[in-house]
From TrEMBL:
Pfam families according to UniProt: Esterase
Superkingdom classification of source: Bacteria
SUPFAM superfamilies cross-referenced by the UniProt entry: alpha/beta-Hydrolases
Single Gene Ontology MF annotation: acyltransferase activity, transferring groups other than amino-acyl groups
Protein name listed in UniProt: Esterase
Amino acid sequence: MAKVKCEFFSEVLGISTSMTVLLPEVGKNRIGMAGAKKKETYPVLYLLHGLSDDDSTWARRTALERYVAELGIVVVMPNGYRGFYTNMQNGEKYFDYIANEVPSVAQHYFPISTARNETFVAGLSMGGYGAMKLALNFPERYCSAASFSGALDIESYLKEVSGDAAREKMNTFGTVSDFLGSENDLFSLAKKVSNEAEERPRLYQACGTEDFLYAHNQNFQTHIIEETNLDLTYDEGPGAHTWDYWDEQIQKALRFFEL
């Protein structure tokens, strides 16, 4: 794989920002890694980071490059800051940035397919929330989405946090009444997609049983099973909010995507 650090100006955020991109290589002479088949355009995985990370973290803390080397897929890892991939109540429009500007910039510079059946999104923690949010707001764009240790039950999160965390979440989502039924509410979005969408994304959800977000993930899984007819694959087992767990889960998600 070729790894590119793409630095660009975001018109939405009004700042210079970046994305880290993995691109397929066709070469056959590298020891220990095979190449991909040459194509005009490649499927794309938008891979989102967690609250304390940036666009470089997935490539630094997992063997992601090795996992995707033979799959012939472009992996786009944008910098999402601490914005929860959300148009904040008091702040920047991170959802407009991640949903529209990042794909537009990536498609401009890199050989990325725009076909729905070749477009995937995944993420961990805050990024797991962002991945589900993108797929459920735009089911016509994404064929599959995966969340690892995702912050999926934001309503409960808003009610539980206090201090600086509560102030940050208030700036992001507003009050619980602001949040419920909005483009940020995964539970409401899931029911809407289930009832109204012509195309529905396949969903993969994973959370470790020792994770502090485990109960929230159980709540989301129960909602999907009992209140929707969406196609959800759920995986749980021993694991905490750690990179050992996410390194394992990105491999499972790549198999789930059936690339």
